[in-house]
Design brief:
The complex is a heterotrimer. Chain A is of the alpha/beta class. Chain A folds into three domains: about 120 residues, no CATH class; about 170 residues, 3-Layer(bba) Sandwich (FAD/NAD(P)-binding domain); about 140 residues, FAD/NAD(P)-binding domain (3-Layer(bba) Sandwich). In chain A, about 30% of the residues lie in helices and about 20% in strands. Chain A is built from 19 helices and 24 strands. In chain A, the strands form eight sheets. Chain A has a five-stranded parallel β-sheet, with helices on both faces. In chain A, helix 2 runs antiparallel to helix 3, helix 2 packs across helix 17 and helix 4 packs antiparallel against helix 6. Chain B has two domains: about 240 residues, Thiamin diphosphate (ThDP)-binding fold, Pyr/PP domains (Rossmann fold), CATH 3.40.50; about 130 residues, Rossmann fold (3-Layer(aba) Sandwich). Chain B contains twelve helices and 16 strands. In chain B, strand 4, helix 4 and strand 5 form a beta-alpha-beta unit. Helices cover about 35% and strands about 15% of the residues of chain C. Chain C has an eight-stranded mixed β-sheet with strand order 3-1-4-5-7-6-8-9, sandwiched between helices. Chain C contains eleven helices and nine strands. Chain C has a single domain, classed as 3-Layer(aba) Sandwich (Rossmann fold), CATH 3.40.50. The longest helix of chain C is centred in the last third of the chain and has 19 residues. Classes of the chains: A alpha/beta, B alpha/beta, C alpha/beta. At the A-C interface, strand 1, helix 18 and helix 19 of A face helix 1, strand 2 and helix 9 of C. Strand 9 of chain B pairs parallel with strand 3 of chain C, so a sheet runs across the interface.
Chain lengths: ~575, ~400, ~300
């Protein structure tokens, strides 16, 4: 800008001698645009509290390693999540109202796989705190808590009764959904961080809670829910009758239980379907029997569809009355059911119609629900049904004792378990450092679901947020004009007829080009992505680059508060503020 | 080099000699042959100027204002209706201080229509801030057009060179065309200094000016019009020294002992020289004052020429309806502060409107009527008007 | 600034500013945004000629200015003529690379300025004439012009059945002059606008660009919807974005994903509040008919 004061006095004609910079039109303003960082609905819904909008931004820029690091701030298992998480994020994705949800899980899987391929590690660990923590249970909750505690500088040891860590991730989810090399890869990373593992240690056997509590500064109990309910059916103990978790555990260990020609799976949850699809791979005809209608099945719709594709048939509205056979199972007698009035959970209570039928089978798998073992949980913290009484951060009323995962009353998914472990790690860290419970509450929360982002030391901000607000951005807060309608990336499944040959993964990973394109479908709701719309559309040249280089700031000397920038922000990362008095 | 030229051709030659870079003009009788001559010169490769054949006179003046703001020496020409149409932009040019030269061929204004000689068009532009120079003959036309550029560029005020329709524009006379080298020495290339649209030094010209600043710009125009009195004289003298032809803003002829001094302008002065000679031969003590400049009005030399004279008879080839002839008004204003004993009586005679002839007989009548009366019969006396009251039905 | 996951990647918008803040346009002024973006497309060296209009006032009163390019303010009707003279001067002085740009409103183009514009076009002057069209004499307080659309309220057409005459089709008029380049653009599509100015700079001969420049004050709408309303004008085919070369080769430069009904555009603006549904339907017919006339010629 060249303007300097020229001659004093009047020039010969009305030629300008100064610039309009003298005129600070900011005084005209009665509203002020403000850059805010709001919560995207996907991040809000993520049970693990991942920064989905931020991750997808980085992936969309081709910064895959940074995107992976951002996930790793919130969740240590992206490659696993991309395969087994039921992506509630996608259901709440604002893109649903525009065209189709972003295939967030495909992208997450790609990033996790890339990190495994490149053997990426997380950033340097901080100074040791001098504190030690014990994690009982090497399932997703325990591993997650261990991971975060380690990143916060604590000494951690994970105990588990099985031979290998992983919990249900290894022993409950079949390999065609979660390949072992992926699981081992992501758990292996934890080992390389210096987390100690002691497998083959059983709580209530050679492992005792009191000793652990004495030896460590905090203990996290995350032994899961492995108890399987007896139905009280005649023939429940015949040979060929299996419990779902036991069945899957044997399969995971390579010890395939004899299933025979025809398998009947009782139950409608994800475990039931896992059992069904595994049985198909063992060469059996499989039918799943569920006492309510398909709409009420707790299993994920995707699983149901996959099972159908793999030849599993479904019999709905029938409950087992008796298991038939002499010493081994030959069949099951079912009562036909109809849906009655809703129960306490709001689901319709099934009522027998009186009709019955029999189905032949050579094996029965009972997959009717699991519960935590009350014997292993201290009585003082045991709640109804064996669940442990904890607050939102896994704190129990007992000193030093925290609990989470399926032991706690959370939704029973891997992702919820990871979130549970992270929140407990936050609470344990505060407890061990003596910073008091309030410190935990001040961490930045992703909206009302209650997940937290931990203040991990030594982490440079991968995706800076200057002015966070807890408000969730809905579709109406966006400017959808800026997004062309494009179909979502569809995961490629192995054709059903090719799947049953073995336990190879059934969903293929997407290639980089497809992932990049898909990541760019993310609106990045509520987060400034330095797109520049505000800068481009300001009639008053009053939006300028942030000195730090990312994003923009308002030049309050000149901004007239018209609000065009807020209106044209594609992703709801701006608001118009109407302060009293001085704008 | 001596050639027989019409007044319009003389203008064109001057424009060429002056190294004008941009011409924009619109045809109107009797100016048209100025631009036709220029077009012909360009077609022959004799003129290296941009010639914009605009679609109206308003656009002609606007275009040359634009050209001048681009730092080029620019010129336009018009007449009568065309000058009226330019009126808005005449104000604009002087306020914007663009050093333009405009050749106006004095033509009567409509309604009713007339294409013949009359000063109403140029005198109506008195307030526009243009310097106005009136010419008596085609040599003066050529010479004054050259001088106009120098005057305009020294003061950064636009200059109008006025000649009479048909009497000069279309009448051939022998004219000395100066040597281009001499003209080049007299009139160097235009230097816009810092008042032009320089891409290297971006400024805005002509923004609105608030009441607390506007008057100063107008004061500067007035100040430079005042300076113009000296500059015009100086340029005429410099021209005389170089080219040997001398002009002045006020010229007197046989006024020393005159009992009636006739004041006239333009070609009327040319007739006046013959009239003075003839009437003097018959013993009439008539004198003549020729005034060249309407703006800036040369009050001092006018006072010098007329003080102590008993009677001044102004021949106005124009009238300001509701008042009187414009030159008479200007003269009276200039003479106002003279003591009574030195202030002549001013007689205003309206003659020659719409091209009606002003002849020696006109001068005779003016002389006789002025001599016969102590005071003017009327504010303005119209010579040679035949008006017959229409017969009423009753 | 990069926006690869958006419709337009803003990295194509030049970052250099040739306009300063502190100008006195109303908050949300479409014309000031238009100038800002046009200058980004033009770059230097450029000289502007601006007649009486909002943009005569927007730079601020003397002695300040909001422009970092030389600018000459001129009388209302003279833009086309002054451009001609200015360009001739630059050409004579060996400065032919200076892009000479007129920046006039609809009044100064459709009405009082049409003679000078047509004259310059007929002479194929080597200048760029930009009409920023806010569809009324806004600077003097919203009076009707030849560019005011059918049915719009203005202070001189305040009643029902206001301004029954259709908007003068200045695009067709300029196309009929067969000048090398005629285009329409609007700041709601900044990449299209910037590209057109970049291109216009390189074309020799007369160029005419009409910008739809929303005026929240005169159009009676909130000042944050300026860009939105200009966008809708394009999306309902009321203001197709196009280029016409030599009056013969027509091209639509932005094709909207979906065409909105013109009602969506009209009902955003208070100046059309008094229009009946019947009148709105009539406008839809006019819009469709006019667009069809252009569409038949698009390559």
């Amino acid at each position: 800008m060249r303007y300097v004061e020229r001659s004093t006095g009047t020039p010969l004609c009305a030629a300008s001698t100064r610039s309009s910079l003298d005129n600070r039109t900011g005084s005209w303003r009665f509203a002020r645009p403000v850059f805010v960082d709001r919560v995207s609905p996907c991040s809000q819904r993520c049970p693990a509290g991942e920064d989905v909008a931020g991750t997808l931004y980085l992936a969309g820029q081709g910064r895959y390693e940074d995107a992976w690091r951002l996930i790793m701030r919130e969740n240590p298992f992206p490659a696993i999540m991309g395969r087994v998480c039921y992506h509630t994020c996608e259901r709440s994705c604002n893109r649903v109202e525009h065209d189709e949800a972003v295939s967030i899980h495909c992208i997450e899987r790609f990033l996790g796989d890339l990190a495994l391929e490149r053997d990426l590690r997380v950033g340097p660990l901080p100074e040791p705190s001098g504190k030690t923590a014990a994690l009982v249970g090497a399932g997703p909750a325990g591993l997650s808590a261990a991971y975060f505690l380690r990143r916060l500088g604590h000494d951690t040891t994970v105990y588990d009764d099985m031979d290998r860590p992983g919990g249900l991730m290894r022993y409950g989810i079949p390999a065609y959904r979660l390949p072992l090399d992926v699981l081992d890869g992501e758990i292996g990373r934890l080992e390389r961080m210096g987390i100690r593992f002691e497998t083959g240690r059983t709580l209530g056997g050679d492992l005792d809670l009191d000793s652990l509590t004495a030896e460590h500064d905090a203990v996290f109990l995350a032994i899961g829910a492995h108890g399987e309910r007896r139905l009280g059916l005649e023939g429940e103990d015949l040979r060929g009758v299996y419990r779902a978790l036991g069945f899957l555990e044997r399969v995971a260990e390579g010890d395939f239980p004899p299933a025979g020609r025809r398998v009947a799976v009782i139950g409608g949850g994800n475990s039931a379907l896992d059992c069904a699809r595994v049985s198909r791979r063992l060469g059996a005809e499989v039918a799943v029997y569920y006492r309510r209608s398909e709409a009420e099945m707790p299993a994920h719709a995707e699983e149901v569809a996959a099972a159908r594709d793999e030849g599993v048939s479904f019999e709905l509205l029938c409950a087992p009355a008796a298991i038939l056979g002499e010493s081994a199972v030959t069949g099951v007698r079912f009562s036909r059911m109809r849906l009655g009035r809703p129960d306490a959970t709001g689901r319709c209570r099934p009522e027998p119609t009186g009709e019955e039928f029999e189905a032949e089978c050579s094996a029965v798998i009972l997959a009717t629900g699991e519960f935590p073992d009350p014997e292993l949980v201290p009585a003082e913290v045991c709640g109804p049904g064996g669940a442990t009484q904890v607050d939102g951060f896994g704190r129990t009323r007992l000193d030093k004792l925290f609990a989470g995962g399926d032991l706690a009353p959370i939704q029973r998914t891997v992702t919820h378990a990871v979130g549970s472990g992270k929140r407990a790690a936050a609470a344990m860290d505060a407890f061990m450092r003596g910073t008091g419970p309030d410190r935990v509450e001040t961490l930045f929360r992703w909206g009302p679901e209650g997940n937290v982002t931990l203040d991990l030391p030594g982490e440079a901000a991968l995706f800076p947020r200057r002015n966070p607000e807890a408000q969730v951005v809905g579709y109406h807060a966006l400017n959808p004009f800026y997004f062309e309608r494009r179909p979502a990336l569809e995961a490629v499944w192995v054709p059903p007829q090719d799947r049953l040959a073995g336990f190879e993964e059934v969903v293929r990973g997407a290639d980089e080009e497809a992932v990049l394109r898909e990541a760019r479908r993310c609106f990045n709701c509520g987060s400034c992505t330095d797109c520049g719309n505000c800068f481009v559309f300001c009639p008053d040249v009053s939006i300028r680059k942030e000195p730090g280089g990312f994003g923009y700031e308002v030049n309050l000397d000149y901004c007239k508060g018209c609000g065009i920038c807020v209106q044209e922000c594609p992703r709801g990362a701006m608001t118009l503020s109407y302060p009293e008095g001085d704008a | 080099m001596r050639k027989v030229l019409t007044g319009n051709q003389a203008v064109a030659h001057a424009v060429l000699l002056a190294g004008v870079q941009v011409v924009a003009a619109y045809p109107i009788t009797p100016q048209t042959s100025i631009i036709e001559t220029l077009a012909g010169m360009q077609a022959e490769g004799r003129g290296d100027f941009e010639f914009i054949r605009v679609e109206s006179e308003h656009s002609a003046l606007s275009a040359v204002i634009g050209a001048s703001m681009g730092g080029a020496r620019a010129f336009t020409a018009t007449s009568g209706q065309g000058l009226f149409l330019m009126h808005e932009m005449l104000h604009y040019a002087s306020g914007a201080r663009v050093p333009l030269v405009l050749a106006n061929v004095n033509r009567a204004g409509a309604a009713p229509w007339s294409i013949w000689s009359d000063q109403t068009d140029s005198v109506s532009q008195r307030e526009t801030g243009w310097i106005q120079l009136y010419c008596e003959g085609n040599q003066e036309v050529l010479d004054t057009t050259l001088m106009a550029f120098k005057i305009a560029e020294s003061l950064r005020l636009p200059v109008m060179v006025v000649s009479d329709a048909f009497f000069l524009s279309h009448t051939s006379e022998p004219v000395e065309i100066p040597d281009p080298g001499e003209v080049g020495a007299f009139l160097p290339p235009f230097d816009p200094q810092d008042l032009w649209l320089d891409p290297e030094d971006p400024r805005t010209f002509g923004s609105i000016v608030m009441p607390d600043a506007y008057m100063e710009f107008r004061w500067l125009v007035q100040r430079d019009m005042e300076r113009a009195k000296t500059v015009v004289t100086g340029v005429h003298e410099a021209f005389g020294r170089r080219f040997g032809r001398w002009y002045s803003q006020v010229e007197t002829l046989e006024t020393r002992d005159a009992d009636v001094v006739v004041l006239c302008t333009g070609t009327v002065a040319s007739t006046g020289r013959v009239a003075v000679e003839r009437l003097r031969e018959r013993g009439k003590r008539i004198g003549m004052v020729k005034v060249k400049t309407l703006r800036p009005f040369p009050a001092a030399p006018v006072i010098e020429a007329l003080r102590g004279k008993g009677k001044v008879a102004v021949i106005d080839r124009n009238v300001s309806p509701g008042a009187q002839g414009v030159w008479a008004q200007e003269i009276k204003a200039a003479l106002y502060d003279l003591p009574d004993t030195e202030r002549p009586a001013v007689f205003d005679y309206i003659a020659g409107l719409g091209g009606r002839d002003i002849s020696v007989a006109t001068f005779e009548e003016v002389y006789e009527r002025t001599s016969a009366a102590d005071r003017p019969e009327d504010l303005d006396v119209w010579i040679g008007v035949h008006y017959a009251e229409p017969e009423s039905a009753v | 600034m990069r926006s690869p996951n958006q419709r337009f990647d803003n990295k194509e918008i030049p970052e250099q500013e040739l306009m300063f803040p502190g100008h006195v346009a109303c908050a949300g002024c479409g014309a000031s945004l238009s100038m800002r973006l046009a200058l980004k497309g033009l770059g230097k060296p450029t000289a502007l000629v601006i007649p009486a209009s909002c943009w005569a006032i927007i730079p601020g009163p003397w002695p300040g200015t909001a422009l970092d390019v030389p600018m000459f303010q001129t009388a209302f009707e003279t833009t086309g003529a002054v451009l001609s003279g200015l360009k001739a001067a630059y050409r004579k002085r060996g400065m032919d690379d200076v892009c000479v740009v007129g920046w006039a409103g609809d009044g100064g183009t459709y009405d009082i300025g049409i003679q000078a514009l047509s004259g310059a076009a007929e002479r194929n002057e080597d200048v760029l004439y930009v009409c920023y069209d806010n569809e009324a004499y806004m600077n003097t307080g919203v009076q009707r012009s030849g560019g005011t659309p059918c049915g719009a309220w203005t202070t001189t057409t305040p009643g029902a059945g206001a301004k029954p005459e259709p908007k003068k089709d200045i695009d067709e008029i300029m196309i009929a002059h067969r000048i090398p380049y005629v285009a329409t653009a609007t700041a709601a599509y900044p990449h299209d606008l910037v590209a057109k100015f970049r291109k216009a700079r390189t074309v020799r001969g007369m160029r005419f660009v009409r910008l739809l420049a929303a005026c929240p004050a005169g159009w009676r709408m909130p000042d944050n919807l300026t860009v939105e309303v200009m966008r809708r004008a394009v999306q309902c085919n009321l203001f197709p974005l196009m280029e016409v070369e030599d009056g013969r080769r027509f091209r639509q430069t932005v094709v909207p994903d979906e065409i909105l009904p013109v009602r969506d555009y009209l009902r955003m603006q208070g100046r059309f509040k008094q229009m009946t549904d019947r009148e709105v339907e009539a406008v839809q017919e006019q819009v469709d008919e006019r667009f069809a006339r252009f569409a038949a010629r698009f390559e």
